[in-house]
């Protein structure tokens, strides 16, 4: 069961490449000035995309 959850999460992440890229780009551009909620908008978009995929399959 545990491996199924990890595989499902991995599929969710792989299904959201544009959101993942936007979040990663934001982090990369601002990593020297990291702070709480940095790139929160990009993270929320990525999280919502992954959650949609995971909820459909779960």
Automatic annotation (TrEMBL):
PROSITE patterns: CHCH. One of its GO terms (cellular component) is mitochondrion. InterPro entries: Cys_alpha_HP_mot_SF, NDUFAF8. It comes from the Eukaryota. GO terms for biological process: mitochondrial respiratory chain complex I assembly. This is IMS import disulfide relay-system CHCH-CHCH-like Cx9C domain-containing protein. It comes from Absidia repens. The lineage of its organism: Eukaryota, Fungi, Fungi incertae sedis, Mucoromycota, Mucoromycotina.
